[in-house]
Structures are given as structure tokens and as C-alpha cells.
Amino acid sequence: MPATSKAQQIATAIAEHAPGKLYARNKGMLGMTHQQLHDFASTKRKGLPARAPKAKKAAAAPKAPGMPVMKKGPQGPMRSMLAARMGGR
């Protein structure tokens, strides 16, 4: 499987040849087999983007139809008023 970016190709080359110089965030690469590391590291850099594009997150559907979606619950007096209305849940 080829690397998808220059950064990934460089990181796997370091993991393959000098694992002690890897950054802590890339230590997970040490779990890959030597053949997998070689496949990623041997990818030609020409034509690769500097960084891989971020994956888009799917929009979360509302839990109950007709109900507003709140990212964070109400705070302060609004919280106690809603708790009283809902029976103290």
C-alpha cells in the first residue's frame, strides 16, 4: 500500500530505519511489520501532497424528531427551570 502524503512517507522511512528517532505521536507505527513499513517508505514522493487531506465528518442526525439539538446542556437558572419541568431527571 503506498503512502498518501510526503509526511507519511517520511515518517514510515524513519520508523523503518531509525525507530529511536520517531516522535511519540508516531510510535504506533512500530506495530507495523517491516514489510508494511517498507511498502509505505518506498513510495515515490513526486506528486504526493505535503499532508493528507482530512476526512470529512458525517453530520449527526437529531435524536428525536422535532426536538432542538443542543451541543451542551443549559447552565445556571435555565437548568433548574428545565429540571423542574421535566420532573427532576
Rg, rounded, reads 24 Å
By helix and strand content, what is the structural category? mainly alpha
Q: How widely separated are the two ends?
A: 52 Å
Could you report the average pLDDT, rounded to the nearest whole number?
A: 79
Number of helices: 3
Order of helices and strands: HHH
| Shape summary | elongated
Strand content: under 5%
The portion of residues assigned to helices is 25-40%
Unreliable residue stretches: none
Largest sheet: none
* Total DSSP E strands: 0
What does this structure look like?
The longest helix has 12 residues, at 6-17. 33% of the residues lie in helices and 0% in strands. With 89 residues, it is mostly helical. It has a domain at 6-41. The protein contains 3 helices and no strands. Helix 1 crosses helix 2 (34-41). It has helices spanning 6-17, 34-41, 77-85. The model has no long low-confidence stretch (mean pLDDT 79).
Task: Please sum up the structure shown.
By secondary structure, this protein is mostly helical. 33% of the residues lie in helices and 0% in strands. Helix 1 crosses helix 2.
Secondary structure topology:
Layout: H1 6-17, H2 34-41, H3 77-85
Helix pairs in contact: 1-2
Question: Which key phrases capture this entry?
Answer:
89 residues
